[in-house]
Design a protein that fits this description.
Helix content: 55-70%
Radius of gyration: 18 Å
Distance between the termini: 21 Å
Number of helices: 6
Number of domains: 1
Number of strands: 0
Structural class: mainly alpha
Largest sheet: none
């Protein structure tokens, strides 16, 4: 692989902004178009960008296997959010229909459980995208 300083510098400088935009899409998913899946795909793409530009080993150093394992377990938090609704006397993943207070309409924390669900889904999609890319990149071809 050739040493391309322009590509590496551009990727290094752009990645934090790409990830911040992904977080914005996740956090505002209940107010604007977007949400957990779309924001997670953006964040996952930024991690893949680093792996493509710097190589798989360097990309793995930036977000190691242990961090990916923790992010992959975010599915458990999805179930936990649903169980909190049951423990509070509502239905699984209940929200406004069940009478749960959701805050001021239009505010960032106005989505009730949807805000937390978007975060969990975003983490899961980002980590799954990264994991799939690494698994397919390391696969031996005939």
């Amino acid at each position: 692989m050739t040493e391309d300083i322009i590509v590496k510098t551009s990727a290094r400088l752009m990645t934090p902004f790409i990830q911040m935009f992904g977080l914005y899409v996740i956090f505002h998913g209940h107010l604007t178009p977007g949400g957990g899946f779309q924001g997670g795909a953006i964040i996952g793409a930024s991690m893949i960008l680093l792996a493509v530009v710097y190589g798989l080993e360097e990309g793995e150093k930036r977000l190691g296997h242990d961090a990916s394992t923790v992010l992959e377990s975010s599915t458990l938090f999805y179930a936990l959010i649903g169980l909190i609704g049951i423990a509070a006397g509502y239905s699984f993943l209940a929200n406004r229909v069940a009478g749960i207070p959701v805050g001021t309409p239009g505010a960032l924390f106005s989505g009730g459980a949807i805000f937390a669900i978007n975060i969990v889904v975003g983490l899961k999609v980002a980590s799954t995208g990264k994991t799939l890319f690494y698994a397919l990149s390391r696969e031996e071809r005939p």
